[in-house]
Amino acid sequence: MTQNRAKIRTEGVNVHYGATHAIKDVTLDIPDKTVTAFIGPSGCGKSTFLRCINRMNDTIDVCRVTGIITIDGEDIYDRRIDPVQLRRKVGMVFQKPNPFPKSIYDNVAYGPKIHGLARNRAELDEIVEKALRRGAIWDEVKDRLSEPGTGLSGGQQQRLCIARAIATEPEILLMDEPCSALDPIATSQVEELIYELKNNYSVVIVTHSMQQAARVSQKTAFFHLGTMVEYGETDEIFTNPRDERTENYITGRIG
Amino acid sequence: MSPLWTPLFILALAIAGFFAARSRALSTAGGNPRLMHSLPRVYGMNALIWTAAPALLLLAALTLAQPMMQERQVMSALPDSLTASAGETSLAMAEICRIAGGIATAIENRSLSKDAALQSSDIGTLRDALTGAGIAVTPETSAEILNGAQDWYAYDRRAALLHAVLALGAAALGLVWALRRARKDVNARSTVERGILLLLMGAASVAILTTVGIVFSMLFEAYHFFQQYSWREFFFSTNWNPRFQGGSDLGMLPLLWGTLYISLIALIGAVPIGLFAAIYLSEYASRRMRSIAKPLIEVLAGVPTIVYGLFALITVGPILRDYFAAPMGLGNSASSVMTAGLVMGIMLIPFVSSLSDDIINAVPQSLRDGSYGLGSTQSETVRHVVLPAALPGIVGAILLAASRAIGETMIVVLGAGAAAKLSMNPFEAMTTVTVKIVSQLTGDTDFASPETLVAFALGLTLFVLTLILNVIALYVVRKYREQYE
């Protein structure tokens, strides 16, 4: 596999929730235009680490992040960086589908509108259609764009949320267990979509399902009790893990 | 014997029944609760319910029904001269009740012997005996009235005894029945559960029936009013000028206008401030700040409205007059729509803010995360995501505040005055429906003239108005809920 240049670099990242030390000294490079999976048992800190990459942890009062995280060589925790600008570049999809209580169209148009990406209605229509097509949901919703997004099925809602995240043209897409609330059919649709997305974005996905990590990702990081135990090519991790803890996890002995 | 003794005795019997049934049920199982269908205390509860509930209900029903039956009996004995019209009949009955009450008190105080009160058939001696016992009886009080009072007292005593016997009998029957059923294989639990269900249903229906009763009493009196006064005049006349000598103008439009004008000003003040305060508290304030500020705002809700009224009267009114109304040439009255509206607005702030704050807090965090994740700022998130999601609840809160504003009286009396006027000038004194209801019903009133009865028509109008507001609120909430969830 060809090695892309690093899109995201982290160096000695520590996260504290009040007195809890949630992430311990994590250093890794995430390449561009690949899918990187974070796996590990519940409470191992993989979601927390993911939320550091777009500074979503800023919205939590007691959370403190130290260490260096750079995107394209720029320190995102630098004081000059506006987290709002950053999050436009780093889109996020959440565990539970969370469409806004608005129409399908307005859900997707929300990001472009607040960032002023469209000069007129026609351009906005175009952006929305493009995002919905990339989110692999256009054919299902094109005739009912004015209906509420909350009326869709769970899988459709999650693809709508992915389309919504894509619409602001991010460079990185963070996904926090995007399939954990979905049934197997919806899961396979979303997985297919994630696999496609790597052609345009660098995708980081947190998942509980090792099969899912194996199916969609090229790189995998295994987290355990707040530390990153092992990071490498997905095939390597699953077939030939170096660390005993990784082996125990993927063979089902812990977690 | 005081009428309170009977229910107390029934309760004592019921409590005794509780312990008796519990131990009896336990003994049928040989002292082993595991062999019993229900817990021992459930058998006790069963006995308690069976002893107390039917007996007390019977007692209540008898006590309510008795005066009506008694009145009919005593009334039928009265001569036609005293029952010529409804007014005279009720006057005669009131007199009879008063004297009968006097007799009862006098006998209890031993200032009158029972024989003297009941046996004396000679009116002269009876009158003397009553006067001697300190009961006001004029020489004009007719013999029929005095006889009626004697009958009334006698019926009262007989009824009290009869009721006590019947109720205690019912209690004893219930106790015996429950004790017989206090056996280990009897399902006492479902009986007790049903008893609790009935109790809860009873509480709910009391609330509903009271509302229905209020509406009917208003409808009844309003109907009397519209028999005496044209409804066209009432609803469409712009003149409010009641005169107790008769010939009043009772047009409600000036009052309705005052109500709506003052409420509007109050809401224009309260809704933005309350809503912004709620947004600050729920979205921006730190937890510490919130825990201090929220109770402080809610203190405003606990201030009695008469205190707000004083504030309007001595502070807000004069300030508005001296610095706004007089320099602008809009009038020189301290009482004005603006005064009452502003102070009422202050009163409504905690209603709007407290309810909206709860509703905004109920918006799921995942929606906010979604919005932040797309790179929107905090205020964009509030405007485009949180407020639309909370809208149905916020509309509900505003309409609740509007109902309060429409029903408010004290602030209006002290802040806006009592002059019914139809004017656009917000610095002029006006008044509202509620104030006029109070002023029409204060003082000596007979409930027969249109000047008094108009209060009920006004009350009914107000009731319908707030009802319409509530229906709109329900409609709005339901509509948006369908769209959003």
Automatic annotation (TrEMBL), chain B:
GO terms for cellular component: plasma membrane. Part of the binding-protein-dependent transport system for phosphate; probably responsible for the translocation of the substrate across the membrane. GO terms for biological process: phosphate ion transport. Residues 256-473 form the ABC transmembrane type-1 domain. Pfam families: BPD_transp_1, DUF3708. The chain crosses the membrane at residues 47-65, 160-179, 195-220, 260-281, 293-314, 334-352, 385-406, 453-477. It is found in: Cell inner membrane; Cell membrane. One of its GO terms (molecular function) is phosphate transmembrane transporter activity. This is Phosphate transport system permease protein. PANTHER family: PHOSPHATE TRANSPORT SYSTEM PERMEASE, PHOSPHATE TRANSPORT SYSTEM PERMEASE PROTEIN. InterPro entries: MetI-like, MetI-like_sf, Phosphate_PstC, PstC_N. It is a multi-pass membrane protein. Keywords: Cell inner membrane, Cell membrane, Membrane, Phosphate transport, Transmembrane, Transmembrane helix, Transport. Belongs to the binding-protein-dependent transport system permease family. CysTW subfamily. PROSITE patterns: ABC_TM1.
